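If your schedule permits, I should be very grateful for your opinion on a structural question. Kindly check, if you would, that the fold set down in the tokens agrees with what the sequence suggests. Thank you for your consideration; the sequence and its tokens are set out here:
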Amino acid sequence: MPDRTQSAQPLHAMSVDVEDYFHVAALSNVIPRDSWSSQPLRVRENTERLLALFERHHVKATFFVLGWVAEHCPDLVREIDRAGHEIASHGYSHQLIYRQTPEEFRQETRHSRQLLEDLTGKPVVGYRAASYSITRDSLWALDILVECGFKWDSSIFPVHHDKYGIPGSPSTPYTLKTDKGAILQEFPLTTAKILGMPVPAAGGGYFRQFPYPLFRHLFAQASGFGVRPQIFYLHPWEVDPGQPRFNNASWLSRFRHYTNLDKCEERLERLLQDFRFGTVSDSFAACPTDQPVVSTRQMLALA
């Protein structure tokens, strides 16, 4: 990475998807939704660890809070807000959008947004889908987001993946225009290029599975080595190596969920030293104003 001071770097977006270990899609086959309330709740303590880390590094982040968490830990939402961070919605039940009906999605989205606004007394205008599940099969959700009052989204991953992604979609922030004429700003998840192919470099499992020097290089490369703001994400459970283990999950699910949990917090500390971070809204504001406009019809036509 070139030798740059942090003040010369772009303002990248730091984001946290506030959910607990038993909410994740990778474990949904072994932790049914009707058992969530009987699982040990660890999201409060783990989120507070992240809040303390961000405070030490003078970083404000965007917290995409799951509605279920807001109902069960309302004081945690207020604590995040009091610390000066941005509150956005992560939906309510962490269900994949393309497995919901439009009406189910509409009801959950309205409910989760109202929960957060009631707790903070502030408008909630940002959204991120569970497991980035706005795909070609669920682009209809964008109209519902606008209908519910959202102004921006960070749910589209421009990669191939078995559960998410719209390959070929823009890798820098852009304006989405739906067939119904609704407008939504999109901050896509970070990708770098290896041999011309897009590689995820946004955080989460990729942050834990790649060696840190490789991840740092990919994140820097995605930014043009200090030109374009990018977005990073992680979950509170990723700094919790002591969480319950579900060994009856598939090998792939266990690999995705448990790899290097004991290294994540230390790596995050290094990341905060190597790059400059702020909220998604602040990072959006630092992006070029001449963002491309992409229609949902164009998204459907992507190869």
Observations:
- Residues 6-301 form a domain with the TIM Barrel fold (CATH 3.20.20.370).
- DSSP finds eleven helices and twelve strands in the chain.
